[in-house]
Specification:
It is built from 26 helices and 18 strands. The chain is of the alpha+beta class. Helix 4 runs parallel beside helix 8, helix 17 crosses helix 19 and helix 20 packs across helix 25. The protein is elongated and about 120 Å long. The N and C termini lie far apart (about 80 Å). One of its GO terms (cellular component) is axon.
Length: about 750
């Protein structure tokens, strides 16, 4: 109760350490258990103080035993309490510090009036208490004559207690009864989860269990319905023999086959489309068979994505020979596994070999012990679980402090989409400082996201460590932390400032969220000067140009020094830089060229995208949008070709010339795909919606299923642009010459 009080007191303040619900879960039934013991103690105490041979107290023990039901409730909740405490201390540095040593009162009259224990040990105390009470009853009976009136009462109390104990020993944390380590300590499960292993050249989903002294890699066996599920051990490494090979040593490791981005993107689109079908079926009270079929298909697709998207290598080596390779999608998770193993390795560990029986028992205990029950895909979520956020999260990473010595520092941001975490943004490196001031803004697309993670790295410039495998992250993580994206808190128009604390480092950031339907609005500029939000025909006429100056300048700069930049057009530029460029172009400032040559290339790419996104009507026009949608859906290649070319001819000249100019540029960018990793498909995904998405008046967005309609439309928009990107070169004069042969309406 002692540690619970201050936590409860802060729960209702503006800066709670834990929420009331978390406190309720962790300290479940503690007050009731306390009351039972207090009543027992208060009745027993006077009897012991005024002792004579006629005192009876069997009824007190009998009553205590009869109240063990309250313990049953505590025991049933014990696992959840432990998991909650564990989760809270992972995400909350303050609570982690508190729960590592909790101050509690020592027994009365003992020398230690205060002792400190860990949260886990404290939560085990009540269970321990039942065992100890049973032993006390046992001893008490030995010293009670059989004809004493208390004897049958104590016997009854002992019977109840023993039955209770044997019933909970099955339920209670089987970790306590897991196999013992060579040194005779109990082997406890510390962490488990699903990881992708690269085994014999193919990707396999494994359930990995980290025990006190061993890492065990297992897979769930296929079993007949109704049979008890079992794990099958693939391999294990005693922690005493486990080492992490450095990048140099892992040169001879198998090369990771990375799935091209566009295949992953295609799969995400497919999943979104199936999701909207499921929604439609549900809305139309569709047949459950049809819904089940769709859900099965969705699970297969999500499983494929889960298996194929991770690319960050996590290597494990056994000193006695074999090496193993896992692939993760999040460096945050990789470092959590690494840190958990390294913490355990600080203890004095012994090497060992498990006999087949021991291995069987240990693998058998995995099923009961596991804390992660479901593969992390969204189709495993219940309907009532929060679907997460869909839309755009704007994050400004301000600064960080708390570093002991100066270093080259940067941050990355990860969010969960489709059930697993991926890195979405990265700040620039701030050189040689203890107080980096990044002040960079990022726009991150959320696909059902519930958490944001921030990792802070020290950049490694040591040539020997930089390794050939481009997904190997050799930079050192200085700190990491995560926060829940609470839909209520985030969905305000205003910026919301926050601090994440990690290993003594504080990172300041702000965020705001725009839901999908809000972020899709094109708003025409009120003023007709400037270029952003102004009709393209107005701008080209004013400039006496065929292609707006801003488009020519940005493209020229990207071709000059950005064409080999990894993720060009996909990686967001710093928002403040983009706003600065926007202002300069709008004011037609004479310093434009100087500014362009100094500016980060991603900001220039971002300015070009912003220009097209803010056009009052899309480059390919509102009028033709329905026709583009129909044209791309045609199945006959000749009819499609005719229609798609005719649609280009129907565009106003400035729109057509600018579109063809951009098209040739994007093709040149895609030629460098081996270096910049931007395929035609990636570029179509980035630019399709920007060039085609209708403006507000045209699209009557039904807000209910905005995200589903959205995903279907976006797929079509991407396909339209991809069609033109994959088409042999199209010239303006050729198109216009052919106009003569066509009637105006096809």
């Amino acid at each position: 109760l002692q540690p619970m009080k201050p936590l409860k007191a802060t729960a209702t303040t503006s800066q709670p350490v834990l929420t009331l619900q978390q406190i309720e879960t962790i300290f479940y039934k503690i007050q009731d258990i306390y009351e039972i013991h207090k009543e027992f103690y208060d009745s027993l105490c006077p009897k012991v103080q005024q002792w004579d041979s006629n005192v009876t107290m069997g009824h007190l023990f009998q009553k205590l035993a009869s109240q063990l039901g309250v313990y049953k409730a505590f025991v049933d909740n014990y696992k959840i309490a432990l998991e909650t405490a564990e989760k809270c201390s992972q995400s909350n540095y303050q609570f982690q510090k508190i729960s590592e040593e909790l101050k509690v009162k020592g027994p009365k009259d003992s020398k230690e009036s205060h002792t400190s224990v860990t949260m886990e040990a404290l939560l085990y105390k009540p269970i321990d208490r039942v065992t100890r009470s049973t032993l006390v009853l046992h001893d008490l009976l030995k010293h009670t004559p059989a004809d004493h009136p208390d004897y049958p009462l104590l016997q009854d109390a002992l019977r109840i207690s023993q039955n209770f104990l044997s019933s909970i020993n099955e339920d209670i944390d089987p970790r306590r009864t897991a196999v013992t380590t060579p040194k005779g300590e109990t082997r406890q499960l510390v962490k488990d989860g699903f990881l992708v292993e690269l085994s014999e050249g193919s990707r396999k989903l494994r359930h990995v269990f980290l025990f006190t002294d061993v890492l065990l890699c297992a897979k769930l066996k296929k079993t007949a319905v109704g049979k008890h599920q079992q794990y099958d051990c693939k391999w294990y490494v005693p922690l005493a023999d486990l080492v992490f090979p450095s990048p140099e040593e892992s040169e001879h490791c198998p090369q990771v086959h990375v799935i091209p981005d566009h295949e992953l993107e295609d799969m995400k689109m497919k999943i979104s489309a199936i999701k909207s079908e499921v929604q439609k079926e549900k809305a139309n009270k569709g047949q459950s068979r049809a819904i089940e079929r769709l859900k099965k298909k969705m699970f297969e697709n999500e499983f494929w994505l889960l298996l194929n998207s991770p690319a960050i290598p996590f290597r494990i080596h056994n000193r006695n020979g074999k090496s193993y390779l896992f692939l993760l999608s999040s460096d945050y998770e990789r470092s959590e596994w690494r840190e958990a193993i390294q913490r355990l390795q600080k203890k004095d560990l012994q090497a060992f070999v498990l006999s087949s029986v021991e291995l069987q028992v240990l693998t058998g205990s995995c099923f009961k012990l596991r804390t992660v029950h479901n593969i992390p895909v969204t189709s495993n979520k219940d309907d009532d679980e929060s679907p997460g956020l869909y839309g755009f999260l704007h994050v400004i990473v301000h600064s960080a402090k708390g570093f002991k010595q100066s270093a080259n520092l940067y941050c990355t941001l990860e969010v969960d989409s489709f059930g697993y975490f991926v890195s979405k943004a990265k700040t620039r490196v701030f050189r040689d400082t203890t107080e980096p001031q990044w002040n960079e803004e990022f726009e991150i697309e959320l696909e059902g996201s519930q958490s944001l993670r921030i990792l802070c790295y020290e950049k490694c410039y040591d040539k020997t460590k930089l390794n050939k495998d481009n997904n190997e992250i050799v930079d050192k993580i200085m700190g990491k932390g995560q926060i829940q994206l609470d839909p209520q808190a985030v969905q305000t128009k205003n910026w919301h400032m926050d601090v994440i604390e990690m290993n003594g480092i504080k990172v300041e950031f702000s965020m705001k969220f725009t839901s999908r339907d809000m972020s899709l609005k094109r708003t025409p500029s009120k003023k007709q000067t400037g270029v952003f939000g102004v009709k393209i025909s107005v701008v080209t006429k004013r400039e006496r140009s065929k292609v707006p100056y801003i488009v020519r300048q940005c493209i020229e700069e990207v071709e000059k020094r950005g064409i080999e930049e990894v993720g060009i057009y996909r990686i967001s530029g710093v928002a403040t830089d983009i706003q600065a460029l926007k202002a300069v172009f709008d004011a037609n400032n004479k310093d434009i060229l100087v500014m362009l040559s100094d500016m980060d290339i991603n900001a220039i790419a971002g300015t070009l995208k912003l220009y097209f996104r803010e056009l009052p009507e899309p480059l390919l026009t509102d009028r033709l949008y329905p026709a583009f949608m129909e044209g791309i859906a045609l199945s006959d290649p000749a009819a499609k070709e005719n229609c798609m070319m005719h649609l280009l001819r129907s565009l106003p000249d400035p729109n057509l010339i600018t579109f063809l100019f951009l098209l040739e540029h994007l093709k040149r960018v895609a030629e460098k795909e081996p270096i910049n990793k931007m395929s035609l498909h990636n570029l179509a995904t980035v630019f399709g919606p920007t060039l085609l998405r209708p403006s507000e008046g045209e699209s009557k967005v039904h807000l209910t299923l905005a995200s589903d309609i959205w995903s279907h439309d976006v797929m079509a928009q991407v396909q339209v642009l991809l069609y033109y990107l994959q088409h042999p070169p199209i010239s303006f004069s050729e198109l216009k010459r052919n106009t003569l042969y066509f009637s105006t309406d096809v």
